[in-house]
């Protein structure tokens, strides 16, 4: 068995993943363990997904989203709170948790909202939710008020929880919907400036430094965001951040006039993409998350201007990153696993038990949304040729995905 990585996080004393895998595979008869073609990886962890339930089950459900995650090699996900009802107190959180308990096929850790209804006006009941959430976020909305974010950070620190921020200054958006770059200029689109992201990150970093709160930045996309976070880390601010595969592998000149290329923040310019790659190399960027954000076909059928923000990505993340970054010697496979397994689990306190996936890293194929288990099908990587197919995913010693 070509077991590329078998280490177990946290020194828990659990058996190595190779031993755990051998036990499962031999007793189940699912695959011949002596095949040199297969590689074992620890269960991937995505700290930024949208499972859409409750409230928007026509886009995704806990069941469909976690099945999709398992197919992508993920055994743990953190699900964002832009739901209906928004989980902003103990009762509304329970609505979501009950569905998770009933339907999830992998570990699901819900976020609690920072503000009531994610409206930015009043703090959510963070005390009541603290024991049931992984962290606090108003993802989909930037917290516009400095004072509100300061108050949230102080409360989160007292509870021992992270603030996980979608950073977006609404005053700078001006109706934009793609990056304010060359493609927007050439095709007459309204652009979103980079400062709408990095300016609010810079504000939050100062507040995190002031309050001592642990702070994590969602889906960074600009070169300036990388630099302000790099500088904050050098000052000793308790900050981590994530980016997503589409920001690392595309720039705005790869856009097409289709909704599957629209997400928030948008795909930025070439210099931004290069800065993000440098950020994952030097450790400024700690985590790669997918921001898996499914929508209905109708919602994504209205071009760049009219379509909903968001794409799917949890079933394609590893093959894309392996093909474009590892196979092309941009980063090592060990570095990739730090970004999608070990760093997110360490930062968010998510354990790794006998969770693993089995991959055929030699299999080549084109990404076909028709094969997705997610209800969402919109991906800018449709038709992209990749290498690496997940054959089996196991959580707590139980098979949660097996290729037919």
Mean pLDDT score: 93
Taking Cα atoms only, what radius of gyration do you get, to the nearest Å? 20 Å
Number of helices: 13
Q: Report the structural category.
A: alpha/beta
Number of strands: 13
Unreliable stretches covering 5 or more consecutive residues? 1-14
A few lines on this structure:
The chain is built from 13 helices and 13 strands. The chain is an alpha/beta fold. It has a 4-stranded antiparallel beta sheet with strand order 1-11-12-13.
Question: What can you tell me about this protein's structure?
Answer:
Helices cover 34% and strands 16% of the residues. With 404 residues, it is an alpha/beta fold. α5 (146-159) crosses α7 (195-211). The radius of gyration is 20 Å and the shape is globular.
Index terms:
alpha/beta; 404 residues; 4-stranded parallel β-sheet; disordered N terminus
Question: Helices and strands in order, then pairings?
Answer:
Layout: H1 17-28, E1 38-42, E2 44-49, H2 62-71, E3 74-79, H3 90-103, E4 107-110, H4 126-129, H5 146-159, E5 163-165, E6 178-179, H6 182-187, E7 191-192, H7 195-211, E8 215-217, H8 223-235, E9 239-243, H9 245-249, H10 270-282, E10 287-288, H11 303-306, H12 317-326, H13 333-348, E11 356-366, E12 385-395, E13 398-402
Parallel strand pairs: 2-3, 3-4, 5-8, 6-7, 8-9, 9-10
Antiparallel strand pairs: 1-11, 11-12, 12-13
């Amino acid at each position: 068995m070509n077991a590329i990585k078998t280490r177990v996080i946290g020194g828990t004393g659990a058996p190595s993943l190779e031993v755990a895998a051998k036990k499962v595979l031999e007793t189940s008869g699912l695959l011949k363990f002596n095949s040199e073609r297969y590689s074992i990886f620890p269960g991937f962890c995505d700290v930024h997904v949208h499972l859409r339930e409750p409230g928007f089950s026509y886009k995704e459900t806990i069941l469909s989203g976690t099945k999709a995650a398992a197919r992508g090699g993920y055994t743990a996900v953190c699900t964002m709170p832009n739901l209906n009802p928004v989980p902003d107190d103990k009762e509304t959180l329970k609505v979501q948790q009950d569905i998770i308990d009933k339907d999830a096929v992998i570990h699901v850790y819900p976020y609690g909202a920072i503000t009531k209804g994610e409206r930015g006006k009043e703090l959510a009941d963070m005390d009541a939710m603290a024991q049931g959430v992984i962290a606090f976020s108003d993802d989909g909305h930037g917290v516009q008020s400095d004072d509100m974010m300061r108050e949230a950070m102080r409360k989160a620190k007292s509870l021992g929880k992270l603030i996980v921020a979608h950073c977006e200054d609404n005053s700078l958006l001006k109706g934009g919907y793609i990056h304010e770059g060359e493609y927007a200029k050439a095709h007459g689109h309204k652009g979103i400036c980079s400062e709408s992201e990095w300016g609010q990150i810079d504000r939050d970093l100062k507040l995190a430094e002031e309050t001592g709160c642990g702070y994590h930045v969602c889906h960074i996309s600009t070169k300036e965001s990388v630099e302000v976070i790099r500088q904050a880390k050098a000052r000793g601010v308790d900050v981590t951040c994530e980016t997503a595969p589409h920001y690392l592998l595309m720039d705005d000149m790869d856009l097409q006039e289709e909704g599957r290329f629209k997400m928030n923040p948008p795909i930025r310019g070439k210099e931004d993409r290069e800065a993000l790659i440098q950020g994952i190399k030097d450790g400024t960027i700690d985590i790669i998350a997918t921001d898996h954000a499914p929508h209905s076909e109708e919602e994504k059928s209205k071009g760049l201007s009219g379509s909903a923000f968001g794409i799917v990505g949890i079933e394609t993340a590893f093959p894309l990153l392996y093909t474009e970054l590892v196979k092309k010697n941009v980063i090592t496979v060990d570095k990739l696993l730090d970004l999608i397994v070990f760093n997110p689990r360490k930062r968010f306190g998510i354990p790794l038990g006998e969770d693993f996936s089995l991959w055929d890293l030699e299999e080549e194929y084109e990404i076909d949304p028709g094969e997705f288990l997610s209800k969402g099908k919109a991906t800018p990587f449709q038709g992209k040729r990749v290498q690496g197919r997940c054959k089996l995913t196991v959580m707590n010693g139980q098979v949660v995905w097996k290729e037919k």
